[in-house]
Amino acid sequence: MTTDLNQFPQLDKTKFEQRGIQLEIGVPVTCAVSIGNYIAAGFGDGTIRIFSSGEKHKTLKAHKGVILCMAKDGDNILTGGDDGYFLKISLNGEINEITNFGSRWVDHVAAHNGNLVCSSGKVVYYWDKNKKEPKSLNHDSTIGGLAFDAKGRRLAVSRYGGVTVWKKDYSNKWKSTKLDWKGSHNKVSFSPDGKYLVTSMQENVLRCWRLKDKLDFAMSGYGSKIKSFAFIDDTSYLATSGAIDAICWPFDGEGPMGRKPICLPYIGNKQVTFIEPFPDEKAIFAGLSDGSVFLSQIENENNTIIIRSFTGSEVSAIAMTDDKSSIFIGDMSGNTLWTSIWDQ
Amino acid sequence: MENKHQVPVTVLTGFLGAGKTTLLNRILTEQHGQKYAVIVNEFGEQGIDNDLVVDADEEVFEMNNGCICCTVRGDLIRILSGLMKRADKLDAIIVETTGLADPAPVAQTFFVDQDVANKTKLDAIVTVADAVHLSSQIEDHHEAEEQIAFGDVILLNKIDLVKEENIDVVTKRIRKINPFAKIIKTTKCGAPLKEILNLDAFSLKRILEVEPDFLESDHDHEHDDDVTSLSFVSEKPLDMEKFQNWFGKLLQTKGQDIMRTKGILDFKGENDRYVFQGVHMLMDASPMGKWPDDKERSSRLVFIGRNLETMNLKEGFEACKSE
Question: Which residue of A35, A99, A102, A144 is 20 to 30 Å from A257, comparing CA positions?
Fold first, then answer.
């Protein structure tokens, strides 16, 4: 008999695992979004699974290769893949090709009010909902992330050297403003109140711009790359992965400058790899590198519950239905959990 | 300890027209029962059509970590992370670089990016050289020289077009730049794939197996910016603290000129052999078990780079010998 002290203690199944549906798909879960009370999840083999309560999940073969990105467009799912396809998929399983770029990957997709965007390499393609042909927005380097602001008026495109913010002027022409900071910027997001723009960088740091005066600052101290972050309870907090705690920066009032973040600790000392907000609450789901998922209240670190126990594989997707009744969790080995949150 | 599976990545470099595309086509079309993904550059000489070919745009960027040589390939980080999400597991990945590219940022990506390092490992740098034109290319383009300097394997291609005695001249030229690369003479890049892929050349263990051709340290001086190599041997054990001070400072201040380093070190008072290798300022080092009983303990150190003669390497190394 040998014992390994580093091993996570063997836990019983959580009540969520007991009452939920667990699948071992065997290929990485790459993304998930909520569409009403449905969750769509994308996988490394090009399949999409659609979960809803009371029904068996539906499996669709959408892409020939990895589904790299996903977004919600009304009642439809937008996906981009390493097969070069940009697809629109209905919840009934109807698949429509928006375009395809051949051997060039579709790295990022986003949508707002029927207007669609995707990026492939250095170019962002924007489809106005009233037009058939996309407008190309060119950049000097490969695009790291795309995000609309809450009103859909501005589109932020992160890249090497900063962020380009695109906006249509009164004559409907695209105008861009550059926010520069040396280095490679990946995921990008506007704060829900529209006052800030945040990127996670190739280095273990976040960059933030206060948009009214373009004042920029770093949020640093991380042990690894910040792959996931989200604004919580409108713009109360920015919760981030990249450390063994979930790091929550205060964004209310005058913003995070000169203030300390709240650090939410989890058992096992594993890296937080995924953050998903609990809608309208100061609470987050945190997924860890060992597959475990916790739900925590930001302002009360004692109020943390375990949703899913250890699987041994990094959490790569979490999504909650719009009615806040159920959640989906997926990891890099394809272990998934679909469960209701509330006790019956 | 978790035994993680890392997909080996071969970096394929070489001057324009040397035969990289010929080799890539062989890798993609030969019946080898392996699944290889190939990352090609956007200025590729000719199109290769295959599901497992990915276009890259060679985006080189500097890390903001204070290390001036820390240039990495941003597109490569993105593509490798995408490839790791595939349902089918890859046996190897080959990264082609343009004829004029410096291979260092590609190699450094594997040292610097944690996600890349977790799931993939740098297997070897393979340089395809044109036996007909290499000598003149080295004279005219510093990139050609750098590609030879970085190579773990050099395919000396098109030897059918060169006279026997000229092959010797080219081989000597290569050896002068890079004493530890394995040189394979080919026509149409016809070397067995097992001599090119999955070599584990960047594993520290392999350094123990490869005996570099130790050249005399006093070499002919041709141009100031020639890439050359220097090697040193000491039968006397080294003082660990002195060595670390000297070597650390050396890489910090001269890391841009020093392209590759490899060494096996015998420290006074230590039972283990210490093995290291570096690309510019980045270094991987580790104790590698006890010295074998049948082998004399000694320290060996090899440098490949520019302006090596200005760095007082011999004196620096001598001063590290224990009292």
Answer: A144
